[in-house]
């Protein structure tokens, strides 16, 4: 016999049955597709344009404190957009950047402008690409922060250019021979959706600016602070019933499910960094789930379609597949169907566990939004002990700034790692349950698990009886019921029972320890993506890098983005209305009111009294602002005091 005939009998992809089309089974059979606009040409054209837009936008953001006499200031960087309508585009740009990172890790040409010649050079280009892609997509975010019509026009052109090129690539080459023929198309779905959002949002913003509907002179973020002040200083109190009724099981389940759905509240807004982190984490879950799906399911389908009787004979000889007569192989049709059924069960277990992991991870990420809101509300009113285990100074530090920078990146990385660990755990558990319980029950045959349970039933019965006996003795013999409490009794008998049941409780403790390992592993795997809670106890929570990053992130957000402090700053930045008597425009309004010794007549005096009462009410409900007020007004002559000012 020739070598080709001998090898063809054992080729795993051959099947005696009608096989599926080659494109459905073999991803590598998809031919290479070269679009009209190659990725190198696309980046070679768009990179200079992005650089020019970045330089042009930097001229719009003048740094007035540096060289004010030379060209009205030195060009500077643009900050993140802080308007309510700009939060979705900011999250979209970060989503595009993270999708590019996923493509960068798996692509052979990480930097489209250069082709690597060796694996070592490829790793070097990957490092450069980590810096290239943020600079490449930065103008899409910077145009929103310019608050200028030219910035909106540049953002419109850039978004249209990126969107058209990406859509044209996927229309010309929808199938790619990378991992799976549909992986390239499906992995670019977040990018195309984000670019489509930017392509619609920038023209709408430009149209509003041309019509004059968008006030470009308004200070960014002042609208939210105004709403927050209205909500805090509102005279309407929250009416709540003092009578507490016992909730039913259905109402408790409903309230628990509602806690996973974030509902916006009037007068409060989640910071932009948290919105970006949750959005990027959801995209990370999608990318990792897609990669896990296309890497396993097509492979197991190929193996199932190419399963032959020769391979089944080997599996029967090794005892992996049950057979009526394993010593003398026969037709093997029944065994072949059994093997294919096993492979199909593996596929079902894998897809089910992956879907469950995605649902759990997304549910925990949505749950974090409500936790973020409650923590920020507590820190805004100065209740640091409701959030942290020990008192913390809400001031920025070197480590806090570093944690603020890396918070969104940590959230995405923890979500990816948590999904991978969950998939491994739930897949192994589902496979064990399927092959040890479900399949033996379907086939009506014995299982190794059932055999162990049947042979060790006296042991299990003894443990169950020992546990029940201890509970019954504790309830009827060792506890004496009084009018309002229970008291311990029969202490000698209690000591004797503890001594007699010590060996049995050791075995019970072994089972309890195994259950503790399993439940702690499941809990930590599910909550790994949640940075607002530590996976360690309170004394060791500083060793949790995710929770430590979250705590420092809150310190920076509260100290630098407190709505009360920002509202006060916005009041100082507003242009004062010219009153009848002349006054010094360089002084703050609050200082002018305090230095003015003559009583203000009529409405002015009423406004001043009302303002002082508002300040007292604000400081009463936000004690953390007292330190900021003292540092802002250190001179006792200007009215600063250690306590809350008296109205």
Describe the overall structure.
With 647 residues, the protein is mainly alpha-helical. The chain has two domains: 34-62 and 79-217, no CATH class; 251-574, no CATH class. Helix content is 64%, strand content 2%. It contains 23 helices and four strands. It has helices at residues 3-9, 22-25, 39-60, 87-106, 119-145, 149-172, 183-187, 189-211, 222-232, 249-258, 272-305, 309-317, 333-380, 398-443, 448-455, 457-476, 491-500, 502-526, 545-561, 563-573, 589-595, 603-621, 625-632; strands at 62-63, 74-75, 479-481, 486-488. The chain has a two-stranded antiparallel ribbon with strand order 1-2. A two-stranded antiparallel ribbon has the order 3-4. A hairpin with a 4-residue loop joins strand 3 and strand 4 (486-488). Helix 4 runs antiparallel to helix 5 (119-145) and helix 9 crosses helix 20. The longest helix is centred in the middle third of the chain and has 48 residues, at 333-380. The radius of gyration is 33 Å and the shape is flat. Mean pLDDT is 77; it is low at 1-25, 237-245, 583-600 and 632-647.
Look at the helices and sheets and give the structural class. Answer: mainly alpha
Biggest beta sheet summary: 2 strands, antiparallel
Alpha-carbon distance between the two ends: 105 Å
- Indicate the low-confidence ranges by residue numbers: 1-25, 237-245, 583-600, 632-647
Give the strand order of the largest sheet, numbering strands 1, 2, ... along the chain: 1-2
Pfam family, one: RBP_receptor
Keywords: Cell membrane, Membrane, Receptor, Retinol-binding, Transmembrane, Transmembrane helix, Transport, Vitamin A
Protein name: Receptor for retinol uptake STRA6
Membrane topology: Multi-pass membrane protein
